[in-house]
TrEMBL record:
Gene that produces this protein: pth
Similarity remark: Belongs to the PTH family.
Top EC class for this record: hydrolase
Molecular function as annotated in GO: peptidyl-tRNA hydrolase activity; tRNA binding
Annotated protein name in UniProt: Peptidyl-tRNA hydrolase
A Pfam family this chain is assigned to: Pept_tRNA_hydro
GO terms classed as biological process: protein quality control for misfolded or incompletely synthesized proteins; rescue of stalled ribosome
Locations listed in the record: Cytoplasm
GO annotations of cellular component type: cytoplasm
Enzyme nomenclature, EC number: 3.1.1.29
Species of origin: Microbacterium pygmaeum
Role according to the record: Hydrolyzes ribosome-free peptidyl-tRNAs (with 1 or more amino acids incorporated), which drop off the ribosome during protein synthesis, or as a result of ribosome stalling. Catalyzes the release of premature peptidyl moieties from peptidyl-tRNA molecules trapped in stalled 50S ribosomal subunits, and thus maintains levels of free tRNAs and 50S ribosomes.
Residues marked Stabilizes the basic form of H active site to accept a proton (site): 96
Length: 194
């Protein structure tokens, strides 16, 4: 289906991980579903899925949260793309990014995975890195905390105050990639906030 988009939020399954930094991509998928009054259903591809529309009449959106752990997200993403007949250029992956400051969003298509194992696995499973990414900044830990532990911690109190705005901005960015293309979304979301 030419105007169907697969928008995937990466994260880990289960209540233990729901509020962690690593699951911010799935939090954005929840925001996109809430905006449309949609709920998720279990899909045989190994994900929870909500089918909806950007606006009445199109484009169609398949919002997805893999049921697998982050590092093996690729299988469900590739299975969903195949099931819905969606090419990689209509896949948008939302994920946490250590190398971007908290409360910042960057968008790109293709390129490397920057050490992000979820993105690496999606690129491997799709057999191409050429899909759009909404990279949601979580920043690096201050001090000596291991980044692997940092991403599995919940957001701090100060971060939680700004988190709704960050989630809304990332959801807006994903919608804009579908509606206007990556370049327009980059121009809006990469500009300094007023």
């Amino acid at each position: 289906m030419a105007d169907t988009w697969l928008i995937v939020g990466l994260g880990n399954p289960g209540p233990r991980y729901e509020a962690t930094r690593h699951n911010v991509g799935q939090m954005v998928i929840d925001e996109l579903a809430v905006r449309r009054g949609e709920s998720f259903k279990v899909h045989k591809a190994g994900a929870r899925v909500a089918e909806t529309w950007l606006r009445p009449g199109g484009p169609k959106l398949v919002l997805a949260k893999p049921n697998t752990f982050m590092n093996v997200s690729g299988g469900p993403v590739a299975n969903l793309a195949k099931f819905y007949g969606i090419e990689a250029d209509h896949v948008i992956v939302l994920h946490d990014e250590l190398d971007i400051p908290f409360d910042t969003i960057k968008l790109k298509t293709g390129g490397g995975h920057g050490g992000h194992n979820g993105v690496r696995d999606v690129a491997k499973a799709l057999d191409t890195p050429d899909f759009a990414r909404v990279r949601i900044g979580i920043g690096r830990p201050i001090g000596r905390q291991d980044p692997a532990d940092w991403v599995l911690d919940p957001f701090g109190a100060a971060e939680r105050k700004n988190l709704p705005v960050l989630l809304a901005d990332a959801a807006d960015a994903a919608e804009q990639v579908v509606d206007e293309g990556l370049l327009a979304a980059q121009q809006k979301h990469h500009a300094p906030r007023a």
